[in-house]
Amino acid sequence: MTTPAPAPKAAGPIASGPLASGLAPALGAYLIWGFLPLYLVLVKSVPAFEFVGWRIIWTLPLCLAIVAWRRQFPELLAALTSPKSLLALLASSVLIGINWFVYIWAIMAGEVYATSIGYYLNPLLNVLLGTLVLGERLSRRQWLAVAIAALAVALLATGAETLTSLWISLSLGFSFGVYGLVRKQVAVGSLPGLTIESAILLPIAGGIAAWYALSPQGSSFGQDPWMSALIVFSGVVTAVPLLLFAIAARRMDYSTLGFIQYLSPTIVFFLGLFVFHQPLAPEKLGSFVLIWIAVGIFVWDLWAKRKSAA
Where does 42-106 show beta strands of DSSP type E? Predict the structure, then answer.
């Protein structure tokens, strides 16, 4: 799953018109991210490491096309000529590459619930990172939400059979949390930023694709037209939801957009339960219940702050 770095909050009060105009692209972005496991099942025969390489390769040209369509080349060039921005994007490209690999490997390995927990944890980890790194202050309700989420993680770690799930959840949550923290320091939009990150990772991705092509099993791309088309489609499912999110973030209040982000891990949870028919161990069920409580408190706090600021 490719979730964008935090976007700037829209200035001023949001009227019902802009909210409505931003709701459709927001729902589109999070629905695509939520149903992404169904697509990854179709490419399950492709090794996860190789697929990440192809995803980077096919994301870059589509991002460049969208950047051209949105006339964002000046923003792209400004970031490319700034050493500080390039250094930050180098770090963020490594983090998003790790995030992509863990997510794809986890879905292909059947760890659907673990990915859902990871993205439920992400907003709470963002709040905690903001406190530890940026010196931001947490409200009492936010501290309570973080404490309950920590209890959920502790519960997930109680059984030896859940250690892999715990590693996946924490890797996804922290890799994207730190990714968002790094991107928060760079004045570059989501799409130009992803374009540069993809370009930075392109040599590694090309090396991965070449290594698999020279291996005895050969490359997964080019042998079967259907599979090759699915691999090319990875660029679409990476760039298009990000474009939709960028449009939504510009048209609606970011705190409102934050509520909608829980749609994706919720869809993934129900896919694991009803589509993939994965058993829900007591430790995982307990972790989900605690995380849902923490998320409820977190959303309640956001809503209360929004009402008081209105």
Answer: none
Give which of 145, 139, 149 is closest to 174, Cα–Cα.
Answer: 149
- pLDDT score of 180: 85
Which tokens sit at 202?
A: 């392109």
| CA gap 142, 148 in Å, rounded | 10
- Nearest partner of 124 among 147, 146, 96, 108, judged by Cα: 146
Query: What is the DSSP-derived secondary structure letter of residue 162?
Result: G
DSSP category for residue 158: S
Other C-beta atoms within 10 Å of 40: how many?
Answer: 22
> For residue range 221-245, what is the model confidence (pLDDT) as tens digits?
999 999 999 999 999 999 999 889 8
Tell me the C-alpha distance between 144 and 150, whole Å. Answer: 10
- Under a CB-based contact definition with an 8 Å cutoff, are residues 25 and 248 in contact? yes
**pLDDT tens digits, one per residue of 193-205:** 999 999 999 999 9
The model carries a pTM of 0.87
The helix/strand/coil state of 5 is coil
